[in-house]
Amino acid sequence: MAATSPFVSPPKLTSIKALAAEFPALTSIPPVYNFQTVPNIIEAFSEADDESIPTVDFSLLTSSNPEERSKVIQDLAKACQDWGFFMVTNHGLPESMMKAMIEACRAFFDLPEEEKQEFEGKHVLDPIRCGTSFNVSVDKVLFWRDFVKFFMHPNFHAPTKPSCLSEIALEFSKRVGQVAREITRGISESLGLELDYIDEALDLENGLQILIANLYPPCPQPELAMGLPPHSDHSLVTLLMQNEIGGLQVQHQGKWINVNPIPNSIVANIGDQIEILSNGKYKSVLHRAVVNSKDTRTSIAIFHGPAPDAVVSPASKLVDSVSNPPAYKAIKYKEYLELQQSHNLDWKSALERIRLYDIE
User: How distant, in Å, are the alpha carbons of 34, 113, 140, 351 from that of 338?
Assistant: First the structure.
């Protein structure tokens, strides 16, 4: 029998962390967090399997050995086409830096509620923004998630509290940006484009780099709640770090797959902008965050995208007017961001709005 909720109406709290603190003996979730009340979301609760996503050895992407580089480009092409997700090993980011970044973000979530609210933000393109759920102004059901989001490139922004966060994030931004840039160059080459095609066509020198740290506290009814529902990313490439607590699941061949954390590795996935640019050859993949009843999960996703005013469209070399016409409208990246983030986080709905026709 389901536990009886003590909530008559949604609690007026600013975060999931505050909700848990106010109700330490919580045995059920407020109805506004119950996703099984939404008819079209039931499929999202299907069971997940354990299966390994592909691995890409980053050190080979920067290798001067042509045979090694050719092999890893093939691996990257297969990972992008078959999965849209892959584990990046030998990426060169110090493990100490990765742990320090996660700890600094956790320290932000541990700030008093009134201090976090100083960075609340109002617009989806505000350079610093924190909150809960995804977009509480339009979300019909809230997510079991707190977040802090800040733009790190081309102009660096970070919360001023805690004091360690900005300093760590600045160096981290540079290092992780180099990794993303090399992966993007590899993807460009794997598509049969020039090595620097994506870099130059989408002005990655001024490309947006957005960090989102997520906190998923223990949930008394994880079978009813979602950390984040199925969605694709707005970026070109997203890199993800997480603590030792799993929760990321990827859709593959109609099944949900658990992506279990591997120490000192980074999870990478291609986003909607790569799907547009490749004219659907590489597809952004649905993924979700599930919660558990025992442990707090922390994840840091770093989204790497085009410059805000760059116009993204299928690469001319990958389309022709007869057998493979453009399947997506051209759109400025900042307009795509606003399109996705001003609505519900709902499967691939933003991409569907600019799709010209379905592709296999």
Answer: 27, 27, 19, 12
Pair of tokens at residue 219: 């949930």
Residue 8, domain member (yes or no): no
Residue 88: strand pairing partners: 56, 266
**CA 295 from chain center: how many Å?**
21
Distance CA 32, CA 7 (A): 10
Helix, coil or strand: residue 94: coil
| pLDDT, greater one: 353 or 358 | 353
Instruction: Quick: pLDDT tens for 316-336.
Output: 999 998 888 999 999 999 999
Please check whether residue 264 lies inside any domain of the structure: yes
Number of separate domains in the chain = 1
Contact of 49 with 55, CB cutoff 8 Å: no
Measuring CA to CA, which residue among 176, 119, 123 is closest to residue 148? 119
CA dihedral of residues 86, 90, 91, 97 (deg, nearest 10): 120
N-terminal to C-terminal alpha carbon distance within the chain: 44
- Residue 277: give the domain boundaries: 53-354
Note the pTM of the prediction, 2 decimals: 0.92
Which helix (H) or strand (E) element contains residue 252? strand 248-252
In a domain, 349, yes or no: yes
In this structure, the dihedral spanned by the alpha carbons of residues 128, 130, 133 and 136, taken in order and rounded to 10 degrees, is -80
179, 93 contact by CB (below 8 A): yes
The sign of the CA dihedral 36, 42, 47, 50 is negative
Report percent pLDDT > 90 for the chain.
70
For the chain, how long is the longest CA-to-CA vector? 65
Task: Name the DSSP class of 318.
Answer: G
For the chain, give the number of residues: 360
Render pLDDT for 13-57 as a digit per residue (tens, 0 to 9). 678 988 878 777 788 998 888 987 665 554 555 667 778 899 999
> 17 in a domain, yes or no?
no
